[in-house]
């Protein structure tokens, strides 16, 4: 069985995954950048939050974060999304990686609104909607993530960092790490005028 031995190799495998067939603008369905995903996952791995852990990928979309965790030795990953098409793509991507000879832990796909989700995990990985279309949806995801696991890696618009620091203080939660990125949003919808639009996005590690 093949194993991932470097961050660059992880990025290469993740870059070959299938994207959204019919992205929904209301759900802010943009494909995660494979280099950024690999960077965060590799750091989570080095911090002891991946190997042997039970992980939830909330709003998983096509499954990039959760699959990356499985490639780095997660014991099991629960992929959660309420879009059946996205979960179908995630299932295809899991099968694809397995067919390439990588050994993966258990994968469970759950089609459910996260508001109705009742699960527990060691770690949550999530790239939630940023709250551009539905206000505060990013905070809703974060609140749910902190109910599910003591450690959360969550992507947010960089401009909300001050708010998130106040939010975490109210929740008796520490922000231990912040990684800043120029997040590439590739043209996915008819109203997009540029092939790639970059926005300032940060991944924050929360720990209770």
Topology:
Blueprint: H1 7-15, H2 34-46, E1 54-58, H3 64-71, E2 76-81, H4 84-99, E3 106-111, E4 123-126, H5 137-148, E5 151-157, H6 161-170, E6 174-186, E7 196-207
Parallel strand pairs: 1-2, 1-4, 2-3, 4-5
Antiparallel strand pairs: 5-7, 6-7
Given the helix and strand composition, which structural class is it? alpha/beta
Annotation, overall tally of beta strands: 7
Report the C-alpha radius of gyration, rounded: 16 Å
Termini separation comes to 36 Å
Provide mean pLDDT, rounded.
90
Give the DSSP E fraction (strand runs of 2 or more residues): 25-35%
Q: Low-confidence stretches at least 5 residues in length (pLDDT < 50)? A: 188-192
The tally of helices reads: 6
* Biggest sheet character: 7 strands, mixed
Helix share of residues? 25-40%
Shape category: globular
Lateral arrangement of strands in the main beta sheet: 3-2-1-4-5-7-6
User: Which sequence of SSEs, written as H and E, runs from N to C?
Assistant: HHEHEHEEHEHEE
